[in-house]
Amino acid sequence: MSRFSSLLALVMVAVLAGCGRPEFSDAEKQTIASLALSRLPPLKPDTTNRFADVPAAAALGSTLFFDTGMSGGGTVSCSTCHKIDRQFQDDLPQAVGVGRTNRRTMPLAGVAHDPWFFWDGRRDSLWAQALTPLENPLEQAGNRAAFTHYIKARFGERYERIFGPLPDLSGVPANASPLGTDAERAAWNAMPGAQAEEVNRVFANIGKAIAAFERSIAPPQTRFDRFALDLAAGAEPKGDAAFSSEEILGLKLFIGKANCVTCHNGPRFTDVSFHNTVVPPV
Ligand code: HEC
Ligand code: HEC
Questions:
Q1: Pocket of ligand 1, candidates 76, 118, 131, 135: which has the most ligand atoms within 8 Å of its Cβ, to mutate?
Q2: What span, in angstroms and rounded, lies between the C-alpha atoms of 207 and 184?
Q3: Which residues contact 186 (CB under 8 A, 6 or more apart)?
Q4: Domain boundaries 55-214, corresponding CATH code
């Protein structure tokens, strides 16, 4: 090592030691506080679902969420991918149901706060979202006529106490759906309109019960939330809330130069008072 470079090394050690832990500016502290779970507003009423806050609907929805009977082959439920002990996701790069999908399972903690659903936001109500995996051939691979028969046979009484009388299903084919296989679509098209309407109503109510359950899936407090709370209170974050220098520098980037916070701007995209230019409030 030359004399010059050893001197440089000494200077660098001295500079790094003198730096200590990186600090946040007041503006950064304000942004961090805005990202804390405690800033999550109370759940708004779901104006698309009359049963959203009916406890019996949520209870039935919870049964259906975990029931593998709610699939074509009887092997997959919502909870196959949305696992209760992993914030309702599965740690896989791509979700696997009846087949392998091309997307990652989204966590459901706090999902009822979202204005729209799926990675691409292609559903705008929680109950309509729930119907999609039920008929997706790679996920639950069922069809609405089969689900309607299943609900009547298995949960008829519980269903009727919430949603009123089930229709007469004697003329409804075992398998039929406007989105299914060729045979299922042909069976669906052959059904009288009023009968298709009745099946659609039961299918929609399945979604509404599941959505009522999903309103109860609250996000747990994380290390980040404890860190943000301590920081907002002017206290030195302690225990697992104490961030390492790398974590602090990463957070500075996240809310600063790297612009992540433009989109990832609060618990479930809801704190729109800061930064939010890409995902507008609804
Ligand atoms: C095969 C695995 C799998 C099954 C089964 C499954 N999901 Fe999902 N879920 C996913 C994947 C993957 C996504 C993202 C898919 C996309 O964006 O196209 C997702 C997205 C969602 C979302 C959107 C979350 C958000 O923040 O936008 C909700 C809500 C949801 N699922 C609920 C359900 C319900 C309810 C069921 C059962 C009726 C279910 N899922 C069944 C894998 C699954
Ligand atoms: C323009 C908006 C936008 C910006 C800026 C942005 N993200 Fe994202 N990010 C998204 C969206 C939308 C998704 C989910 C959709 C997808 O995967 O295509 C996502 C997904 C993610 C995921 C995956 C989450 C999961 O559960 O699989 C991570 C991690 C992530 N972003 C981190 C970051 C980081 C770190 C930055 C800054 C360097 C950043 N994002 C900047 C919009 C954004």
A1: 118
A2: 20
A3: none
A4: 1.10.760.10
CA distance 105 to 74: 20
Where exactly does CATH 1.10.760.10 map onto the chain? 55-214
* Three-state DSSP class for residue 144: helix
Q: Closest ligand 1 atom to the C-alpha of 77?
A: 5
Beta bridge partner(s), residue 117 = 123
pLDDT digits over 114-156, tens only? 989 999 999 999 999 999 999 999 999 999 999 999 999 999 9
Backbone dihedral region for residue 172 (phi beyond 0: left; psi -120 to 50: alpha; all else: beta): beta
Nearest CA owner, ligand 2 atom 37: 260
Ligand 1 centroid – CA 104 distance (Å):
9
Predicted model pTM: 0.85
Contacts of 119 (CB under 8 A, 6+ apart): 103, 104, 106
Residue that the structure tokens 């001295």 belong to: 14
Q: Are the beta carbons of 208 and 58 closer than 8 angstroms?
A: no
Q: Is the CB of 62 under 6 A from ligand 1?
A: no
Token pair of 86, please?
């992993």
Lookup: tokens for 106: 């989204």
Tell me the per-residue pLDDT of 98-119, one tens digit each, with 9 for 90 and over.
999 999 999 999 999 998 999 9
Q: When comparing pLDDT for 7 and 227, which is higher?
A: 227
Distance CA 169, CA 191 (A): 12
